[in-house]
Amino acid sequence: LIDCDLRLPKIDRLLETVAIPGVSNVLVGLSTIDEAIRHTEHSGLDVLLSGIIPPNPSELIGSSKMRDMLSCLKSRYDYILIDTPPINVVSDAIVLSEHLSGIVIIVRAGVANRDSVRYTLEHLEFANANILGFLLNGVSNIKSDRVRKYSRLYDRYYRYSGVNITAEIKKQKDELENSLT
Fold first, then answer.
1. I need a surface site. Which of 4, 41, 82, 139 has the fewest CB within 10 A?
2. Contact indicator for 131, 124 with CB cutoff of 8 Å
3. Contacts by 95-100, CB closer than 8 A, 24 or more apart
4. pLDDT tens across 60-87, in order?
5. How far apart are CA 37 and CA 138, in angstroms?
6. What is the pLDDT of residue 176?
7. Are the beta carbons of 137 and 108 closer than 8 angstroms?
């Protein structure tokens, strides 16, 4: 996991650690990749934090040193996840896209609107980025009326179709309802 938000890094705070050394330190030659990579308590998860906040984040992200660092990491890891600033704010993710296998667009429910998502898609498509999909976050607090409606429709369908709801189907329905609470 790489924190490439060199303006407002967050992963160091989530992990409750100091972000130095990190990406920016490696890119300006103050640290090696091995010095900057942190092994976490989670098996198979290493982290490369942002490092010192530089005066020129876009230049660093678009540099040949960034390309070289990503190539080095690709030879070591099966999967690399990179956190970037929002595309609608700065172009770092678009610049990085040429070095990535694909991009997952994260959309926050109740914050992002259609125009901002459309803007993001247009810019990524212009850069020929491989868009893998979307991740919708920020919906865990919503106990949806849709779940209750779905549950009622589900029950009604089976009741009127003459099919008995088995214990397993009922269990799956309950798990779905619980996971959305």
1. 41
2. yes
3. 95/58, 95/61, 95/62, 96/4, 96/61, 96/66, 97/124, 97/127, 97/128, 97/129, 97/130, 98/127, 98/128, 98/129, 99/66, 99/67, 99/70, 100/129, 100/130
4. 999 999 999 999 999 999 999 999 999 8
5. 29
6. 64
7. yes
Number of H helices, E strands in the chain: 9, 6
Other beta carbons within 10 Å of 97: 20
Cα–Cα distance, 112 to 106 (Å, whole number): 10
Q: For 136-155, write each residue's pLDDT tens digit.
A: 888 764 455 555 555 555 55
The whole-model pTM stands at 0.73
